[in-house]
What does this fold into?
Amino acid sequence: MRIMDAALHHTVERVRAALAAQTPLRLRGGGSKDFHALQLHGEVLDTRVLRGIVSYEPSELVVTVRAGTPLAELEAALAQQGQCLAFEPPRFATAEGDVATVGGMVAAGWSGPARASVGAVRDFVLGIEIINGKAELLRFGGQVMKNVAGYDVSRLMAGSWGTLGVITEVSLKVLPVAPGEATLRFDGIGQAEALQRLNHWGGQPLPLNASCWVEDEGKGTLYVRLRGAKAAVQAACQYMGGTQMDPVQAAADWVACKEQQLPWFRQRAADHVLWRLSVPQTAPALALPAGIASPLVEWHGALRWVQAPRSMGETLKTLAQSVGGSASLFRAEDEAAISAEAIFDPRNAALQRVHANLKQAFDPAGIFNPGRAMEER
It folds into this structure.
C-alpha cells in the first residue's frame, strides 16, 4: 500500500468529506480550461497541491508526474534532455493567473498541431493514479507500453473532464525532439486544393507532422511542418516545393496556432462562437452556410475551426455528421465566459449509456464536476 504524503492525504480526505456530506466538488488545476464547460458547479478542489516530477528516466522515454504540476514545468524538464510531449498539448493559459497543469492536460484530452501524425494524449498515457468517488486511491497501468493491466482505464481518463475521478499522478511516454524540421508555405491555394494535396502527401512516405490552411482576405495559404531525420526532411522539401519558412518565425506561428492566438482566431466577431468540427481527413471542403467565413483547417483536414453564431449549431452539427464527423461548441462569444454547451453529445444515446455506466462505476454519488460535461439526470 502506498504511503501518502500530506498533500495526497489531504486530497483524499476532502473527497471523503464531500462524499459523506454529499457535497459536489469542482475539480480544478490552474483554471486554463474553465472556458469549456456546460456549467461550473461545486466547491473547488484545487489539485495544484499535488505538484512535482516523481520520476524521469530519459533513456526509458517515460516520466511520472503529479497532476498539479504546471505543464510548462514538465515541458522545460523534458527539453533539457532533448525530449518532448509529441502531441503538443495546448496550454490556453490566457487569463491572468491561469496555469495549465498536467492533470488538466489529461482530463481535457486536447492535442496540438501534431495530433494527426503522432497521436492523441490518450496514446501517451501509460499509467494513472486517481481518487474515485468512493475516496479510494487507485492506480491503473504502469510505466511501459507492454504493461496492459488496466491500460484502457488509464486512457479512459483522457478527455473525461474530471467526471470520473481526481487525477493525482500520471505516467507518460515522451519522445526525442526530431533532429530535422522545416515548415513549407504554399500561397494562393484554396481549401479544396489544400485538402487534395494533404491527402496525396499523406499516402506517401513523407515526414508530415502538422498542417494548417487559413484564408486571409480571400487568399488561402497552406502551411506544412515536416519533422524527422534531417535527410528525410530535406528530401521532402525538394519534392513538395513551396517556400521554406524561417525556423524561428515558423516555430512562433505553430505555437500561436496551438494556443489559438493567430489573427484568424483573434479577429472573431463579437456575436460568433468558435465551433470545433472533427471530420475524416478525406472529407471534402464543407459547404458552410452563407455569410460564414472559411474555416481554419488543421490535422491534415481532420480538424476544422468555424466561427459562426451559436444559433447555427444544429446546422453545423448536421453538416459534420453528413461526412461522418461531429461538431461541438468550443468557445463562447466572450472568451471570459463558459461555452455553456454539453461536452459529451447528448443526442448520442449509446454514448450516454456508456457515460452513465462509467459514472456509476467510478463516481456513484455524482460528486465530481456535476454538470461540467453534460446535463445531470
The first helix runs from residue 6 to 21. The longest strand covers residues 219-228.
